[in-house]
């Protein structure tokens, strides 16, 4: 389950309520495109903004729409007891795996983050993905902490932040993590602009933001890299560079939401306020890119 | 209401549940000590870790215990609609004011933060404190954004992060904010180690972490500074330096919780996991400091 393209759909809102119909449409597109797994309630799925009841509805809708495709459900929250409750809800909904980021308000210590994973994994019946996203959690994992957490029961994968774009630095980075954690723990890349480099450097999975909305656009990159054609993967990533530049300027969530809104897959203003999405000028740029890059 | 010592009590948990009895005791101590206001559900009150129902209970308990002392209630949350609901709850509970930090998961833009305050202040019947805490929100206000938000209805105060410890740099910093916002908007200092410098530089209030647990310890500093005896305020702050050093090393929340636990004001392990509190060695240091510095 922790190889290939894991596609992370938005959780679209409509007038501040979960838009289940649009969400079902997004997940169905992913299944039809042939993604390897669906990542429900990732950062792209706005998990941190939704309450427990909403998150239960999203998880159930994802599993129902994904059919045979495994669904990984995000269970991150600030408080350990809520994380444990969300883990139960996700498993009851039929999640094939759960994914946990050390969300913080007070800056967390290594011991606190280890304790969080220790408590949560002790109760699990499904595998867990360690979700390392320093840009949103403001916590930085060391390789030593990866190693300690990877020894816990049910830890099956690590979703790492973008690797350096220099290929040898990327290989060194992925190689060091590979040495630190047991072989049964998959290493996957996130940060779409670093996907080709990450996959070419030994990452086994790509946890993709834009792939959750336009899977046909990113599958050639994923397939090329995983089939060993690193040059083709890099070429595909180069082709999508204007998109990566917009991601860097505005955040991948806002740009991906604008793509989904432009393509009519979700209602306008689908993000949870206070997040506003793009300006009108940037939305026009997204519309042009959607055509030029054949986003689908 | 936005002058003098605003004391921020912990929201103690006992076995992961709100310990209302201990909380009532903490607030009662503040009233008896003569603080100028009580800051319920600040960062020190773990607001970000509590759900809406818990936060309603805390707000009601604070107002009930505070008697004539005004209670400022924190309403921060990631999603605007939840912030608005929390603002309603706080007002129904009898809050004299509310306090709002731009909590983030996705990094917020200036426009998004302005929009948050615009939406929330439009509905309010009580004054609002703009809560600027970049260490936890990971958002940095410019003076220009302070100025725009200060023009919104009901904005009555700004709680600023620590000023530089150099007195002239601190005066420059507070003076620049003072010039940016209307006179009716109070400027208050947070970061206990910067309180003397902040008050001596023109801040009108001190939003205090440790003052919410040991008010008698910090009132002399606040009174000296607000009476114009800046040297006495600095001397008091110097006296408490070993405490500020522990705050810098471990975070003021963990140290203050250890003080409250040591003094028997709350049950052991009163913080929301995954936050663990101090190690045993550091708790022994806290116990020694409590005696040496006469924390009370």
UniProtKB/TrEMBL annotation, chains A, B:
Xref: PANTHER family: 4-HYDROXY-2-OXOGLUTARATE ALDOLASE, MITOCHONDRIAL (PTHR12128:SF66), DIHYDRODIPICOLINATE SYNTHASE (PTHR12128)
SMART domains (alphabetical): DHDPS (SM01130)
Active site: 131, 159
Keywords assigned: Lyase
Recorded GO CC terms: cytosol
Family: Belongs to the DapA family.
Residues involved in pyruvate binding: 44
Lineage, top ranks: Bacteria, Bacillati, Actinomycetota, Actinomycetes, Streptosporangiales
Example of a GO MF term: 4-hydroxy-tetrahydrodipicolinate synthase activity
Name this protein carries in UniProt: Dihydrodipicolinate synthase family protein
Naturally occurring in which organism (per UniProt): Nocardiopsis sinuspersici
The UniProt record lists the keyword Cell cycle: no
């Amino acid at each position: 389950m922790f190889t290939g393209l894991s596609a992370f759909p938005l959780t679209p809102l409509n007038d501040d309520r979960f838009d289940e119909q649009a969400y079902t449409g997004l997940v169905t597109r992913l299944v039809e495109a042939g993604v390897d797994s669906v990542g429900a309630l990732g950062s792209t799925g706005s998990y941190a903004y939704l309450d427990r009841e909403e998150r239960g509805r999203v998880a159930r809708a994802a599993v129902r729409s994904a059919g045979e495709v495994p669904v990984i459900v995000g269970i991150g929250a600030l408080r350990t007891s809520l994380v444990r409750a969300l883990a139960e809800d996700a498993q009851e909904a039929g999640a094939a795996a759960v994914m946990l980021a050390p969300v913080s308000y007070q800056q967390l210590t290594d011991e606190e983050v280890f304790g969080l994973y220790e408590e949560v994994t002790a109760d699990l019946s499904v595998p867990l993905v360690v979700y390392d996203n320093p840009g949103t959690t403001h916590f930085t994992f060391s390789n030593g902490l990866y190693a300690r957490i990877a020894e816990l029961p049910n830890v099956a994968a690590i979703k790492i932040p973008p690797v350096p774009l220099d290929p040898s630095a990327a290989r060194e980075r992925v190689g060091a993590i590979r040495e630190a954690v047991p072989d049964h723990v998959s290493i996957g890349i996130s940060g779409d602009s670093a996907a080709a480099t990450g996959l070419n450097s030994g990452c086994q999975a790509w946890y993709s933001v834009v792939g959750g909305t336009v899977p046909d656009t990113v599958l050639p990159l994923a397939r090329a890299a995983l089939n060993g054609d690193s040059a083709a993967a890099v070429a595909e990533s180069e082709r999508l560079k204007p998109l990566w530049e917009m991601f860097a300027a505005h955040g991948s969530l806002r740009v991906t939401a604008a793509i989904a809104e432009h393509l009519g897959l979700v209602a306008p203003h689908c993000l949870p306020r206070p997040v506003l999405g793009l300006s009108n000028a940037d939305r026009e740029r997204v519309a042009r890119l959607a055509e030029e890059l054949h986003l689908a």
